Amino acid sequence: MAIGAHPDDVEVGAGGLVAKLIKSGLRVGIVDLTAGELATNGTAEERREEARRAGEVLGLTWRQCLAIPDRGITTGKEYLMRLVEVIRKSRPGLILCPYWEDRHPDHVNASRLVQEAWFDSGLTRVGSRLPPFRAGQIWYYYISGAVEPKFIVDVSECYHTKRLAILAHQTQFGKSPNSTETFLNAGPGSLLSVVESRDRYFGSLIGCMYGEGFTTKSPLAIHNPLALLGVKE
Ligand SMILES: [Zn+2]
Q: InterPro entries under this entry (predicted)?
């Protein structure tokens, strides 16, 4: 399960990994905490349709918006329980969520909400119709900027898909006569070129074209050290 504050966050931070996992035969769903209705361009309705199309590009099994107000993400009980319900229903082995430091307060708050929902979903006495469940791992992806990742995934073979999934959010990353210029869609520092440069840099650190960086709060267990060396069992 990949979780974002806004409908394009997962695509920007982990679209390559999501595409790669799906290509490997895994089922992936995305939770958009908000509809991103405060964006300069695009209505909530347009953004919902773009998120659906991006999901098709990636090959998602499901995508759900929790309809928390944009700029209103908190760890209050109501929002916490909405996310706990989705986690218990889908029982993901892995949760992807925004890194805990970011220029956008919604990304920071999303990270906190996911951390708390991950914990509460495993508590028997936190009320819900569904049985308790706690995902094995949380991997944090980067949206605005990045610090040194704990590990980098080679997403070169899926990079075209990532790009198409980002561009499906046309009101955010595209330009039309009616759209307002923002840091997302205009200038040499537009977000798509920044993301591509970052992913290219991460790729260069591990000797491939494009990489996505992730970090974790817990140590990563390596069950098969030979796989790290590229040796098949
Ligand atoms: Zn965002």
A: Bacillithiol_biosynth_BshB1 (IPR023842), GlcNAc_PI_deacetylase-related (IPR003737), LmbE-like_dom_sf (IPR024078)
